[in-house]
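Narrative summary of target 7.
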Amino acid sequence: MSSAVLQRMRDRTRAFGNSHFVRNVITVATGIAAAQAISLIFAPFLTRLYGPEAFGALAAFTAVVNIITPLATLGYANAIVMPATEEGATAVARLSLVSAAIVAPMVLLAVTLFEGQLASWTGLASTPGLLYLIPLYLVMAALLSVADQTAIREGLFKAKAVAYVGSTLLVNIGKLASGFLAPSGLVLILFLMVVKTLNFLLLLARVPKQGAFEARRWFGADGIRHAASEQRDFLIYRMPQSIINAVSFGFPVLALSALFGASVAGQYSIATLVLGGPIMLLGQSVLEVFFPRITEVVRKHPGGAVTHIRQATLGMLLIGAVPFGIIVLWGDVIFPLVFGEEWLRAGEYSRWIALWMASVLATRPAVAAMPALRLQRELLVYEVIITFARIVSLLAAARLGGDLMAIAVFSLVNVVGYGALFLVVHRRASDIRLEQQHAG
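Modeled conformation, tokenized:
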């Protein structure tokens, strides 16, 4: 190999290592990796203490609150990154919390009036009182969402990562201690509330109390009417899309619980929880860092968006090939070995779910680019179509071949859906580049 080629490789490696984007991804990924490592270390002990039924109850409650959570800020918290000015971002933060202050009491009223029906629909008929935790969860979710998005806007990735790791460690210690004393689904659900609160408090403790992170500026009504109008795409498209997406992914838990029992739902939830680790580790890291980066690229150099999306997608594909490939081949051996013999079914599920998660990871850059490319409406249409396909395919496969076939078909439908989503984003970015070339 010639010295010139070697020098070019060294220069590219040095540039890669010095990239601000790469350093931010590594910072976020390191924090998420540490949190995932903590969860995985505790998981073999927790799965032996609580069992599939307890995890099934947690999964059902989580599915319900995930469906409702986008209502907390009406989707506006995701827009904090968008405004060009600090005051514009602060106005969006105010709008998000005003939305939560309106939505939470409405949810409480709905729970009070329709407690029995809601408990039956959500699989919480044996513990309907848990529904009253939902409004409180929404408030904490709104506060954490505003703090997280502000941290992303300000580039405070390290503080965000440390807060996430700290809250994860403390909550897992609490779960373990409670598992020896009173292992139940209720305990796991309560800790779901606690982790949001701890994450928020730890994040506030680590950030400078100035600028967009001066928390007292988040409260009030100044500028919220203009912010609501300027960022209305997030209300019109992103919030419904997020709800539909949550329904789409929460439905399997509720359906499996109704058709096959809480234990099967618990097996499925553990498989998705463990395989979601790489998604949290890299996918969320790239999503959070790539979102403001691609927004700036589209604003200043729109023709370069397609190259950024291609490179990031290829990188995610290559990175996900090894961990998910191992699970596809040997998931049914790994799961019972690590989590206990009663989790064999989760291992069988994991071989199919790994294909689905690999497609999620690969398309994180494309999803992050959609707001900047003004594809919010297309994302909503996509979610409606894919949700219908997911629900129909899972129910049909469950009737025809049982729980394993249902999860296999559900996973393959997701692979096809994410592939189609990438093509939509790639086409829009390519069209923008062509328009810019013709204009030049």
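The chain has a mean pLDDT of 82.
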